[in-house]
UniProtKB/TrEMBL annotation:
Signal peptide location: 1-21
Record-given protein name: GDSL esterase/lipase
Organismal lineage: Eukaryota, Viridiplantae, Streptophyta, Embryophyta, Tracheophyta
GO molecular function: hydrolase activity, acting on ester bonds
GO-annotated biological processes: lipid catabolic process
InterPro entries noted in UniProt: GDSL (IPR001087), GDSL_Est/Lipase (IPR051058), SGNH_plant_lipase-like (IPR035669)
Top-level taxonomic group: Eukaryota
Alphabetic keyword roster: Hydrolase, Lipid degradation, Lipid metabolism, Signal
Length: 377
């Protein structure tokens, strides 16, 4: 249980706006050209997807009201009313927003990326999972293959004058942001697999995560910003299926996520301490702990509704989807969830702030926070 001292610190942190208070945001905008890392490379699922799924054949692009609070009120492929957590983490690093979706790159912008002059790319794809069998979109394995192609072209693009050593130096100082695993949890729960299969499920997940981290490391990644799996039992689409008919979080689903997160923490500590990956550093940001705290203490962050979706229909606004014909709340900054699964822009801002710079003893990142990760030499 969170101590009184830590709780007081967290309330003060959130009420002050975290690292995105008005003055801090203005400073970040004013110094956008000053980046704390050379680039950001993003991998994972819909929590950080900024539009790759919009370009997949046969996929239905997101429409308004998705993106209603994004500049120019337009849908971008983000599963949010505005910015997502990848955008805010990138903002803290001095960028305007998340790097662009890899599949959105034009020949001109792609060439800038290949020359190391474009500040990274996002390979994330909504619906993907840690396991290749999860989802029907761009698997994490394929995302890393896309990044491998990016690096290969960065090295061989003679127009940019890049050498292998220059690119390796750039990548070693860049942030590799990974947010995945929630869809694997949803698949396990939807398939109604028995508890006896949980250990083998965790083993498969962690084995695949190891493979993904090792693959990125071999391609030059050194700074890993990992986001763990949120409390999936607290999202509206799971709450509404509660066997008791209550609006409370479903503990069995949360327990599944919590067990994996414990294994992920042990895995990353083992990889970092093995000596097999010299120069590797990491931070595990915990959406699980952030959402759990905000759910239990909504008033600390100014939320009035932490159970319902802002956009949708039916009980908890989670029985039908967030479509162009759906109703949506006007006070979006007071909702934790935008649709049945994803957080609002306000939730992403507060969560990213906690993961980036809240004191480690608050439990929102470990063994260091993201700010310490990118500040390390």
């Amino acid at each position: 249980m969170m101590s009184l001292r830590v709780m007081i610190l967290m309330v003060a942190f959130l009420l002050s706006g975290g690292v995105l208070g008005s003055s801090a945001a203005a400073t970040a905008d004013a110094r956008e050209a000053v980046h704390l890392v050379p680039a950001v490379y993003v991998f994972g699922d819909s929590t950080v997807d900024v539009g790759n799924n919009q370009y997949l054949p046969g996929n239905s692009p997101l429409q308004l009201p998705y993106g209603i609070d994004f500049p120019l009120s337009r849908p971008t492929g983000r599963f949010s009313n505005g910015y997502n957590v990848a955008d805010f983490i990138a903002k803290f690093l001095g960028f305007k927003r998340s790097p662009p979706a890899y599949l959105s790159l034009t020949p001109q912008t792609s060439r800038l990326l290949m020359r190391g002059r474009f500040r990274g790319a996002s390979y994330a794809s909504g619906g993907s999972g840690i396991l290749d069998t999860t989802g029907k979109t761009i698997t994490l394995t394929k995302q890393i293959e896309y990044f491998a192609a990016t690096k290969s072209n960065m090295v061989t693009d003679d127009g940019g004058g890049n050498s292998s050593s220059v690119i390796d130096e750039l990548l070693s100082k860049s942030l590799f942001l990974i947010s995945d695993g929630g869809n694997d949890m949803f698949a396990f729960l939807t398939q109604k697999r028995p508890p006896s299969e949980v250990p083998s499920f965790y083993a498969d997940m962690l084995s695949n995560y190891t493979r993904h981290i090792q693959a990125l490391y071999s391609l030059g990644a050194r700074r890993f910003g990992i986001l763990d799996v949120p409390p999936v039992g607290c999202v509206p689409s799971v709450r509404v299926l509660s066997p008791t008919g209550a609006n409370a979080c479903v503990e069995s689903a949360n327990g599944l996520a919590r067990g994996f997160n414990d294994g992920l923490a042990s895995l990353m500590a083992k990889l970092a301490g093995s000596g097999a990956m010299p120069g590797m550093s990491y931070s595990i940001g915990s959406p699980y702990n952030v959402v759990s705290y905000l759910t239990a203490n909504p008033e600390a962050a100014g939320f009035k509704d932490v159970a319902s979706a802002c956009c949708g229909g039916g009980r908890l606004n989670a029985q039908t989807g967030c479509t162009p014909n759906a109703t949506y709340c006007g006070n979006r900054g007071e909702y934790l969830f935008w649709d049945g699964v994803h957080g609002t822009q306000a939730a992403s801002r507060k969560g990213a702030a906690a993961i980036y710079s809240a004191p480690v003893q608050m439990g929102f990142a470990s063994p260091i926070n993201f700010k310490q990760l990118v500040s390390a030499s």
